[in-house]
Amino acid sequence: MLAKHYLKLDLTTLLDGSNIYELANIIRDPSSEITQYEQGLTGYQISKAKQLANYMVTGKSRGLLLRNAHAIAASKNNLMDNLNYAEDKVPQIDKLVSCYAVQLLKDDERNKLATFIENNKTGMDALADMHNSIKQAELNKLSNKFNYYKGYIPLQFKNQVNYKAVYSMEAVKEAQHRGWDLVQKLPKTGNAGEVYIMRTSLPDVNFHKGIIQNESTKIYGTNERGLSTSTIIKPLTRDQYSYDPFNTSSYEPIPTFSSTGKVYYYDRPTPLPDTVYDWSGLDALGKWSANEFIESASKSFNIEAVALTKKVYDEDAKFYGSNTSKFYVDINEEAKKDRVVKDAWDRVDPAIKAAIANNFGGKALVRKDMLDLFIGVIVLLLLQIFIQVTLVCLLKH
Predict the structure, then answer these.
(1) 13 near 94, Cβ under 8 Å?
(2) pLDDT per residue over 356-375, tens digit each?
(3) Is the pLDDT of residue 45 over 50?
């Protein structure tokens, strides 16, 4: 209940200016708050707020979903037509969406949640504080706030259950030989072709594109570019999909925006049942907090490793002189030629990239032998390259 209703619908938002008991009353009947929060909004913004609320409750995106209050505030009468929106509209829209979402719950669900909140005031105060602090910490990471999912919580599949998407019958047959079962075939979207959802009950220790990485601490299921970890289907480019208001489905692709409001690709929701997920709200928040700590510590360590790698490079430059360039490559250049390198480089934290650029005069230099070694690994983690390069080269010197 806490995960599926309180956290998923982002009800902590409604505590701004209210106490726990007032929140319980809003949950029972949010109609007066809805009237208040609709004031000053356009009909288009109200319709988008209702659409987002429905998505939070049902998972159905319909057409051109806007994922959060920032995106809705920036869309006054059309998609992203008001980029200079007033910031005070954001909390108003945030609350309105959550109220709409609460209103979509069944009466007995609302009453049960409200009663639980009233009977557990101390615990709910603590939960709300924890949830709010996590949300704010995650929001502060983003330069582009149009793409996070309001109400996202880091869910995980139940034990030893994995899903993936494949894109041809040949891939389906190959997966079936490896123990995967076909769950459903999704209809064609645009010119992107068909999608087949596969499921296995066997644990898969290797990362591959498709398994939801649901313990990521990235904001509400997105990274800085907006790519969702809440879908297992690869995104569509603008050339692959064009919205048709007269021919829509419940699971239409969701636009991802640049900071200037332009669409540069579309996420495709994955219509999986709630029963496949582990709905433990406290576990989700606990993992989120733990991962935040690990991520911060890892970032600090790797920035130091980059600085140490530069010292090793300087030692190589003294030893090899003009031949040093034969032993190092610029990852920025390699990423233009090798898709594996590009995919790995795209995953590196921007702070690490900035540290590398600062240390290497704008380049991203790494020992060529270490890069060649790691290209053969299923998951190419460039952060490990820098650490390994540092340790190997220190031993040489």
Answers:
(1) yes
(2) 888 888 888 877 766 655 44
(3) yes
Per-residue confidence (pLDDT) for residue 153, from 0 to 100: 73
Cβ neighbours for 119, distance < 8 A, ≥ 6 positions apart = none
Kindly give, in sequence order, each residue whose CB lies less than 8 Å from that of residue 88, ignoring residues fewer than 6 positions away: none
Whether 255 and 242 have beta carbons less than 8 Å apart is answered as no
The two tokens of residue 338 are 């090798």
- The tens digit of pLDDT for each residue in 243-254 reads 888 888 888 999
Helix (H, G, I), strand (E, B) or coil at 2: helix
Instruction: Tell whether the model's pLDDT for residue 301 goes beyond 90.
Output: no
Residue 175 to residue 166: CA distance in whole angstroms: 9
Six-digit token string for 323: 């031949």
% of the chain exceeding 70 in pLDDT: 77
Strands 277-278 and 254-257: unpaired
Can you tell me the distance from the alpha carbon of 312 to that of 359, in angstroms, rounded to the nearest whole number?
12
d(CA 367, CA 180): 39
Which phi and psi (to 5°) does residue 33 adopt? -65, -35
Q: Which two tokens stand for residue 171?
A: 């891939």
DSSP 169-211: HHHHHHHHHTT-EEEEEEPP-TTS--EEEEEESS---S--BTB
Single-letter amino acid code for the residue at 232? I
Cα separation, 74 vs 117, whole angstroms:
34
Rounded to 10 degrees, the C-alpha dihedral 330/336/338/341 comes to: 60
